[in-house]
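OP here, attaching both records as promised.
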Amino acid sequence: LPLARLYSGRPLQVRRLLRSALQSWSRPYRQLLGFAFLIGALVLVPRFAPGFAALSRWIQARREIFARPGPRAALLLALFLFAFLASLPFTGSVRGGDDTAYLNAATFDTENWFARRYGHVYLLKLFTLFSGGDPLVGVRVWWSFAFAVTVAALAVAVRSIGDGLQVRTLTVTLFLLLAQPSMMGLIGNGFADFSAMMFLTTAVAVYLHGLVIDAGRPPPRHEWRALVIGALTMGAMRSKEVGAVLLALPMLFLIVDGGIDLRRFARKLLYWTAGVACVLALMVVLDGLILGDPLFSTGWSRSEGLQRMNFPDGRSAQPNDDWLQTIW
């Protein structure tokens, strides 16, 4: 991506300030930054309420246009491109922690103890290839892509909770996203959390979108949303262990139009399982082609790596430990 290389390489003073000020801060200071964004959401959003009202009236006057799939898709694509291009110049490269290990594995095709996170590693490799083989550019393009997909997925999700485009709700949601301590403090770094964030948010957005589209309609011929959610679930789990929270989402397949439909639940669960199987098969193929070991990231023999990833010193949490620090 020559354009991405040129755009991300601009010597912006703001990017240097962000990288030196935010990425070197300790965790408490990043949390203070998150609280600052929350306060900004509470103070600034109401002050811009007249602008939101004017935008809502403008959208309402063109409701027939935005009711069509084409204009809505164009608007969503514009939001994705804006989020991607707006974040790319401010991204860093590496921090020197797990992100460096992920990037090393993606660049040199090496096996490492974080076998269950190689879905994230292969994403980094893909964007490195797109960036001309430069991993320091590839990781920045990947981060901006993951951030932009998350923003677009949030737009789809909030659109599902009511009429219109829910501009005000999306604005508050984006404030909350940026208020996460690791979002700005680790902007542009290749941590697996961001891949898991992207997959998880997209899966929830696909589910909420299906609730709106399928309400009051006969069952579709193919449960493609369940298939996609299954694939995204496994993508999140193969990025970081926290993605396992999506395993609870299929339980909501039971509810259809306010009631319980066991027949359709079984059908959706079958499609969901097929989505999971497709991603596992893809991981087997990639492990074989890239690492020469088809079962590297899916075999049970490396499950002990989970203990090392979450408890590096070999011990479990103690009663006097800070639970958040232990888990994080």
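Record two, same layout:
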Amino acid sequence: EQKRVLDNFQERLGAMQEYREPLESVWLDGCRDYYSYKTGRIATDSEFSLSNLFIPKTFELVETTVPRYFTALFAARPIIKVLPRETLGDIELAEDNEAVLDWQIWRVKMVKQKFLRVIKSASVFGGAFVKLPWNAAEYYTDIVPLDIFDVWVDPIAQTFDECRSVIQRCIVSKEWLKRHGAEYYDPEVLNKLLGEKDDTAEKIASETSRTERAAVLGTKLSSKSYSNCVVFYEDWNEDGILTTIGGRDKDLVLRQLPNPYWHGQPPYAYVSFTPGLFGIYGFGLPQICHDLQEEYNTKRNQRIDNVNLSINQECLVNPDMHINFDALS
């Protein structure tokens, strides 16, 4: 039974990764454009180099749009409007739900910073994933912005609510697992995991999505960055939750249980910046204005190159004319 469950998980994850793979290069291009990341232009000779400016047009568009979205979101209370069901006329119940939701939202720590990160991520990548776990101790729903490269969704779903499965890749430290892992996962499997050497997390450092984004920031990832971490996958599907270790023996299942939420849905949300005509993934500002960014860069660099060529004109000299170069200086 466990083998069947894990085989189904591997099949789902493989289909999701294959579906999303073409989008990852688009997201990385958008990240480079937002950070005005320059790629080198080949110099013609040792004395004259081509201009290599990056005009921050994409950055300007994102940083102009995001504050407007953010201001509009927090301009009035409550933030979330709950509509009553027309058939039942539950107006008072809808108003009560609005008040409860508004109260819960403002209990979330650093709620404005989290919303700002979600909106900015959506504007750059076209969408952003958010996890909404229930905090039983303090009685509210938390808001956790996620890395879009660490979440995969059902490839045939047209809306997020139609997803048959949502898979999140989690990277946690072994120290955290030692302290809290027994509260959530199978102790026997957990002890086996912590007692073995695992280089799965270290391999994450070589992924293109992480190395490219690190280069954009002027940083560099190495295997040492994840040397004391563990990678596992949480699969929220129609059967419940499956937590398994990636890149290891298939018998390492940390957790398998029914969905604990009464609504039966995974505790995730997807915020789309500009929804497409089909599919879940939207598109962001860098994808829309990528060619415009290329035009800005090309024209500005060509103008500077033209000025440099005009100022530093080269002459052809006939050696048979016996020109006195000292006299010219």
